[in-house]
Amino acid sequence: MPANGAAGSASAIRAADAPERLDPERLLLPALLLIEDDPNLGSMTGEMLGDHYRVDWAQTASDARSLLHANRYDALIVDRRLPDGDGLDLIRILRGGGITTPALVLTALADVDDIVEGLDSGANDYLTKPFHFVELEARLRALLRGFHAQAASVMIGDWLLKPDADVIEDPDGRPVSLTDAEARLLAELASSPDHVFSRDELLCSVFSGGSDTGTVDVYVSYVRGKTTKAIIETVRGRGYRIGNPQD
Questions:
Q1: Contact (Cβ atoms closer than 8 angstroms) between residue 55 and residue 140
Q2: b/e per residue, 21-45, with b = 16+ CB within 10 A?
Q3: Rounded Cα–Cα distance for residues 193 and 196 (Å)
Q4: How large a percentage of the chain has pLDDT more than 70?
Q5: φ, ψ of residue 242 in degrees (nearest 5)
Q6: Backbone angles phi, psi at 12, to 5 degrees
Q7: Degrees, nearest 5: CA angle 172-220-227
Q8: Which residue would you say has higher pLDDT here, 245 or 8?
Q9: What per-residue string of b and e applies to 118-138 under the rule 16 or more CB within 10 Å gives b?
Q10: Over the stretch 108-164, which tens digit does the pLDDT of each residue have?
Q11: What pLDDT, in 10s, does the model give residues 40-85?
């Protein structure tokens, strides 16, 4: 991805090959999938957003589907006129599959009917080209605020995780602050309580392809240090699953 100095194919460029592989701090940034077939606009948009997001860039709907299958994203920017179809079809497929990742349509199709179709197809916002980058950034921030505010609290034993606020409350109701990555890790584990997540699964779904699987172990240690060791169970030789800590 040019925004991060990565090299990749002409159709899909992965942020996983970018400097965040060497910079664990970048793992804490929101993951963004940019779906834009114009090479100049895609490169420029990625560069502008790269300071505040981990950006993957797909130039076709097909490559976007591949990246969506392999990675977790906090938001999508979707062009409509792609070489292999309308970006709205991709959004419809995601919504039909129950995937609620916020999507902003970024397109030259600016008629009122086009905008209505985009919003009715499941897009959360619609911005027409040409556009100002400051407006794009503001709309992305608003999308993420609204999406995170809808995240449900989760009971983990007698601890209450509030992923939208990056907080977990201990059994006495005292809040413990978490980083975004720590909250995502707990939320992912809690989403399937009976499932044993491999380190590769967690690396992909929580950290979007970070430096190595040791990153998962480090963050498990961080979470246990802030809460209790029993909150995440180690399944020897397989990975981790959510625990059931009781006071």
A1: no
A2: beeeebbebbbbbbbbbeeeebbeb
A3: 8
A4: 84
A5: -65, 145
A6: -145, 120
A7: 15
A8: 245
A9: beebbbbbbbeeeeeeeebee
A10: 999 999 999 999 999 999 999 999 999 999 999 988 876 655 556 788 999 999 887
A11: 999 999 999 998 999 999 999 999 999 998 888 889 999 999 999 9
Q: Kindly report each contact of residues 36-39 with a partner whose C-beta sits within 8 Å and lies 24 or more positions away, as own/partner.
A: 36/77, 36/79, 36/106, 37/79, 37/81, 37/82, 37/83, 38/79, 39/10
- CA dist 53 and 71 (Å) reads 15
- State residue 60 phi and psi, 5-degree precision: -140, 160
Given a contact cutoff of 8 angstroms between Cβ atoms, the answer to whether 36 and 79 are in contact is yes
Q: Is 177 exposed, middle or buried (0-12, 13-18, 19+ CB in 10 A)?
A: exposed
Q: Which of 33, 24, 45 is nearest to 71 (CA)?
A: 33
Residue with tokens 């995502």: 184
Q: Is the bond preceding residue 2 a cis peptide, omega within 30 degrees?
A: no
The alpha carbon of 92 is separated from its chain's Cα centroid by a whole number of angstroms, namely 18
Count of residues in the chain: 247
State the pLDDT at residue 17: 42
The span from the CA of 154 to the CA of 139, in Å, is: 28
Q: Are strands 232-235 and 31-35 parallel, antiparallel or unpaired?
A: unpaired
Distances, alpha carbon 193 to alpha carbons 88, 184, 242, in Å: 33, 14, 6
